[in-house]
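General statements about sequence and structure are easier to judge against a single worked case. Part of our work consisted of pairing the sequence of a single chain with a tokenised description of its backbone. The amino acid sequence and the backbone structure tokens for this protein are reproduced below.

***
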Amino acid sequence: MKAGRWIALAALLATPVAMAQVVPLPSLPGGLPRVSLPEVPLVDRVAQSVAGLAQDRIDRLRDLVRRNPDRIELDRQGNAVRAGEVVMSDPDDAAIAAAGRAGFRLIERSTIEGLEIGYARFAAPRGMSVDRALRVMRKAAGGREVSADPLHFASGEAGTASALPPPAPPVLPQSGGRIGIIDGGVNDGAVTGRVTQSGFAAGAPVANNHGTGIAALIAGGSGIRGGAPGAGLFVADVYGRDPAGGNATAIARALGWMVTQRVPIVTISLVGPSNPLLARTIAAAQAKGVIIVAAVGNDGPAAPPSFPASYPGVIAVTGVDGRNRALIEAGRASHLDYAAPGADMMTLDANGRPVAVRGTSFAAPLVAARLSAYYGAPDLGRYGPAIRQLDGEARDLGPRGPDKSFGKGLICGDCRTPRK
């Protein structure tokens, strides 16, 4: 390849975009409604070029915006955000009045439950782009933080339903742990253990493939091994039926709910750009003893760092295939802690049927599951010992010691339910 083409490709890959597709899901038994969830594409084609992967991301995101022009737009960095909306942190009456004089309509003024972080959402004047809205609002905000509301996309995808191989015995004993999932909703009849759900988007909670798949990998069910069999799951659905679901404000509110429920570990298999409100919420939850585990995404190693995996203190997880090779599409974070199975494996879809899956999405819940064996309640005094115990489970891969491909090593390698 000529040098000029390499330079062009590098510039393309440096664009901070999380690409998505909307995958329609069938209606579920018992009257659960049809839903859609934005997802980062499955990359099960090892021969696919990096350039093709990058273009695929761009095409999918543009298609998402074309189909939802009144709900989603792209900011100047190429990130998908809620169209015509801006968010102000810690607003007071004077700041809200100033925003009104600048032409903004207040949508919501609230406080994130359990963390006492205030915010307000505003609709920009009709026809104003989100980038111009940010410039205007910052002048009215009196020094308060103002941002767009970026969308986050699931970092993995399921194939078609198929039969499971003969059930394997559980690898791990039953767990009484409590684990949070911020994702789509879960078909609670498909997984073992108790599921408590709450909605943070229009129509939520409603089960979808991705959320149910994450839950099954933690708690097990219908022949799928779980990393923490029978664990109690607290599920925050941030998508519901909203095409602009998965936004930073919804994730922040979901995390506040986890704090009120005293959930010690929360796994997030979603990726998006950095956001000040979400960053502050994560830091506040961590200060209350919540450990957050997140997938590094599937945008490839040349993509910009993904969030929430790149926020300080978040446990960042990548995926490996059945031969313990790093997934070629695995993204990156500002740091990498562990690897876990992310391909050549099965989980359950929203109908409770076994499906093959691939993506770093499916690695993060396995790390959260194993961590729950050592961290049973939010307790900063137990954080260090719990991490050291998890480190003791990590199987070193690649160069000796921690590295950029596998972090400190492979967790829960035997938790994979192999695909046929």
About this structure: Residues 87 and 147 are 5 Å apart (CA to CA). The first helix runs from residue 3 to 13. The radius of gyration is 20 Å. Residues 1-47 have pLDDT under 50 and may be disordered.
